Amino acid sequence: MSLKEDLETIKQTGLQEVTAASDSKALNEIKVKLLGKKGPITKALRGISQLSVAERPIVGSFANKVRDELTDAINEKQTQLEREILNKQLASETIDVTLPGNNIPMGHPHVIQQVIDEIEDIFIGMGYQVLNGPEVEEEHYNFEMMNLPKNHPARDMQDTFYITKEILMRTHTSPMQARALQQHDFNKGPLKMISPGVVFRRDTDDPTHSHQFHQVEGIVIDKHITMADLKGTLEVMSHKLFGDKFKVRVRPSYFPFTEPSVEADVTCMNCEGKGCEVCKGSGWIEVLGAGMVHPNVLKMAGVDSQEYGGFAFGVGPDRFAMLKYGVNDIRDFYLNDLRFLTQFD
Amino acid sequence: MLLSYDWLSDYLKINLSPEDLGEKIERTSVEVDSVFKRSDGLKKLVVGKILSIEKHPDAGHLNICQVDVGNDEPQQIVCGAPNVEVGKKVIVALPGARVGGNIKIKKAKMRGVQSNGMLCALDEIGFPKEIVPDEWKDGIYFLPDDAKVGDEIYSYLGMNDSLIDLDVTPNRGDMLSLRGAVYDLGAVLDQKVDFDETSEPSKGDEFSADSIKAEANESLAPIYQLKVVKNVDVKPSPLWLQIKLWNLGIKPINNVVDITNFVMMKLGQPLHAYDLDQITDHHLEVRKAKQGEKITTLDNQEHELDDVDVVIADAKKPVALAGLMGGLQSSVTAKTKNIVIEAGVFDPVLTRKMAQKELLHTDASQRFERGVDKGNVENALNYAAGMIQKNTNGIASKDVVTGSMETVNPVKIAITVTKINHVLGTSLSEADVISIFKRLGFGIEKQTDKLLVTIPTRCWDIKIDADLYEEVARIYGYDNILSTLPITTTTEGGLTPKQKLIKKSRQTLQGMGLNHAISYSLTNADKAKMFMINPSEETILQWPMTNDHSVLRMNLISGLLDDIAYNQARGVVDVPFYEQGRVFFRNSNDSRPIEVEHIAGAISGSLFSSTWNKKSEQVDFFEIKGIVAKYLETLSLKDQISFVPNDKIKEMHPGRTALIKLGDEIVGFVGQVHPTIASQFKIKQTYVFELDLDKLINADKTEQQYQIVSSYPSIKRDIAMLIDQQVTNEQIYAIIKRRGGAFLKDITLFDVYEGEHVPNGKKSLAYSLTFENSNETLKDDVVNNAVKKIEKYLQEELKVEIR
Fold it and tell me: How does it assemble (chain A) (predicted)?
């Protein structure tokens, strides 16, 4: 048998052995046996010297080819065996990925704060400043400056917690109107501000009354601000808070600090305007009070009511939250029951 | 205030359903609370005639009545009313009927006798008790004799009239009468109003002035007038008048009183009738009450008077509380023969104060507080006298006695169409505006550049041009006004740095697992002054509703502890909260407190609950300290903050509380709530912190400047030591930091151990020190020397034993 034929046989049997190898160890033994210094190829190459000069390069190159083919086959088999082991291991590591993830502590913002933040964002986007007024007010700012002189019947609408004769818990955020009007320099442009905060009324707490609740006051004063601007502004706010499909209607009302005064209703969220218990069949829900700032309020704050005018509004985030989320007891906002608070993200 | 749809329809052509009319009123005038009929919810109530009555054999107070209800056979009904009478027409609730309170009537046996229905009293068919005439208070009601048997009862009692319940705002006192409502709706519906208020002429030749004298001061009663009617026959009013009154929510009394109330509801002028013969010396005076005077009013309440009260007095004593209610002693009763009717205008402020003091809010006081039409007082008085004359066979005197009469001039307001459009954002023409004013019945005089508008006295609340903008807006229709946004020079919107920082604080604490709580700012006296670092006077409400909300809080923690208690009482054990809000400190000389922004946290239980793979850990001091430290880090204050042990806050655990200092200033504290306080609040072990947010906001923040990240490797060395238990981490840390040299970049405590293998009174601490040079590779020698130096000073200054 010629040397070349020997090599051919070595290759064939070698490839068969490689294919048949069952693990890395066996494969390694085959590798040593075939390609090692004492292996058949090395041995065969040693026999080259006995060949003719012309045959030597042909057989030598063939021998190298056989060695390379065997090496490749062994490497490939090795990779295949490793992959099998890894796959087995991965299979054994399988977990139930539907088990819950770890509990990462994360607090919830209070739902009233969320509504206030939303309102702030809406008005900041329209160029309003946000001003925070004192919670303990002078009677002068809370009432007189808001065109509510002593013994005015409208004071009955706002039962008050007094600290002294002149000092009280503010009953609305409106006094901030007067403070802002006094401080604002109209040479630098219009006054556009909102003032969110907590307010107090001398009420017995029940599902619809709370001695503490929130308000966001707003005011725009310039040389030409109209009732139409007020309507448009209230619509923007209502649409952004409740959604575009809700309509807004404005109807006459009375507040001493605005004239004309209006109240704004939006389509009832519960029945979408068809009429239900929540809206007492009217299809509308009252959401806020507003109006054109009363000339007396401007005058008392030192603003020329002939030249300047504008609108003001006051909204109740508590009421908004009740309407938006269907909360039917205002006291829920102040109990801080985690089972309640964590429902709002 | 109730408006009768039927009554309105006598004066206006209304093509709207009562509900639509209510909606129209709401959109143009005042809020409408509801639209209803007194027959709403009632069913199968018919006219019956009692044919016979027989005593119940087993129950003395029950009668077995055979009642004709229009069927072939009479209906047998057992009735307990004392006034059943054969031949009377009565209200029968047939089996299957619905009566007041949504009660269903069924066939039943009453003490063994079959009863097929019920004979009804007025309050049983839904009439509020306070409008049921006294005559019918204790028995079944008798319908008119000509009522047709078997008919539904509603039309006989006016119960099919739709009633519109108005919520009248203080500026719309004119809407508190039919007259005002008719004029207003006439303008809204664009109909010419012909409101006839002509009085029936007096029949008598006598003068009131011969029977009564009147005296009044304009400051108490700007207008005060009297008129006498003699020989009246006082009895129940005819049914039509009773119906009109009870539909409007007023109880019928007798024909004289009913007419005064009717005129009030029709014309808006409150009136009062006195029994002339009970008026001592026939002299009536409006005056301030004298201290200690007493009067018993018509509602049988005795009032002790002082100078807040204004009274009508005869020569001896008060006979009425002015503008509120008449006195019982001089009231008109069945025995009364001669009466004097009073029409006045009482000062709104005085009336309001009096009504509040006497807790007596009446239809009259409601109107005087809002004002009445000063131009129509005498007319209303004559109108009432005429009606009383007609309905009581009395004789009205010729004249009116006047105690006071303020001059009433109609208000004139100059206005321009340009300004109206400027304010409303409309583009109305002059003709549009004039047409609106004409609909309202206002007088208009065109002047060169403006309109002069004359306001009738019945619209007494319209005084300035802004009031007229409102009239134009509501009659033109708010729906017709466009929606635009203000056009101004650009304004810069946004939060101030302080507002931003408060918002960021909320987000940071939420991110660390604390839930945002909003508690009450008003608390009780004990809780208000807990958890305080500095003393302060408390701020107390003058007239709190409850003691629980009577003092302004001076800390946030006590509110959070209440919140924790509320949750834990309901089985929620893990409660992590924070609150941001104001507390109120007061100097003893000031009446007004200083408002300070605080932020506080409280954790009871653990930050999160156990899950299938992780057990939750109970919060401890170091958890909450970690939260506070991390929070302060986000405010760029890390380098200035220190924690100092403190045992002086009595609501806090003396060994587990640290003051938090910013430089040398105390800004708050952190620690465990004292176990006694925790059990007082009924909460489990709780850790808290409270910080003066204003101080944090105003503090100088560490400038943020980028430091090059070293490209040379750092070297770590550990130092372990044995040390007396009393020595604090902070003491050791300070020495390491001071002596560590320029390349010491970080000191981390990684082990604290006491117990086995450590001698009594000692503890073992271990720190990992990181050295780094950003300019070149650090040499071991340099680090070794630095560590040696640290060890040396630790040994010298704190007597530590390096291990």
Answer: Tetramer of two alpha and two beta subunits.
